[in-house]
Each structure stands twice: as structure tokens, then as C-alpha cells.
Recover the amino acids of this structure.
């Protein structure tokens, strides 16, 4: 069984010289860097970075919003685009849904 938080921590690299943490999407490679602040512990920085990624319930990886399906034609939700492709599922990513919601405002 995949441990979601442990999996996310494996996707994060730490640069001790600059005291930064970088999380990368395993599907597209998009990376986000979070710096250690005076107010955040390393766990706090990881928690903030984790908010920018979504957990795939199929493969257990944390992916960016461009690679995360939240709506699909089969009624499944919460799977990354890599798993969706393997299963032949099409749908809308979190990023696409967000754009549509902003257009409706």
C-alpha cells in the first residue's frame, strides 16, 4: 500500500546550501521550489509544496494540476494523466477545470 506523504517526500529534493526544497511532477517534470522561511519548519515547507500537487489514487504519485484528472468520461476522478492514458480514459485536468471556472465568473 502506498503511503501518500512518504511518496511525496521521495519526490522532493533538498538543497542544503540554499535551504530550498524542490518538488517535481513525475509526469511532466514541472518543478516548484519552496524556500525555508523564518516561520516555517522543513515540514511546513513540505506541507506548502504539497498543496500544489495532487495524489493519484492509482499509481500513488503526486502530480501537478496539469497532469491530474478531476473529471472524466467514465465517472472516475482523481487519477494522473499517465494512468488515465494507460486506461484509455479522457477527461479534464484540474488546470482545465480552473480555467473554465474563471471564465464563468
Amino acid at each position: 500500500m502506498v503511503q501518500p506523504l512518504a511518496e511525496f517526500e521521495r519526490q522532493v529534493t533538498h538543497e542544503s546550501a540554499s535551504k530550498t526544497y524542490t518538488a517535481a511532477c513525475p509526469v511532466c517534470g514541472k518543478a516548484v521550489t519552496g524556500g525555508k522561511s523564518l516561520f516555517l519548519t522543513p515540514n511546513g515547507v513540505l506541507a506548502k509544496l504539497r498543496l500544489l500537487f495532487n495524489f493519484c489514487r492509482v499509481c500513488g504519485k503526486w502530480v501537478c494540476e496539469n497532469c491530474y484528472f478531476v473529471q472524466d468520461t467514465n465517472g472516475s476522478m482523481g487519477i494522473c494523466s499517465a494512468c488515465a492514458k494507460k486506461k484509455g480514459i479522457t477527461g479534464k485536468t484540474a488546470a482545465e477545470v480552473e480555467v473554465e471556472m474563471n471564465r464563468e465568473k
About this structure: The two ends are 41 Å apart (CA to CA).
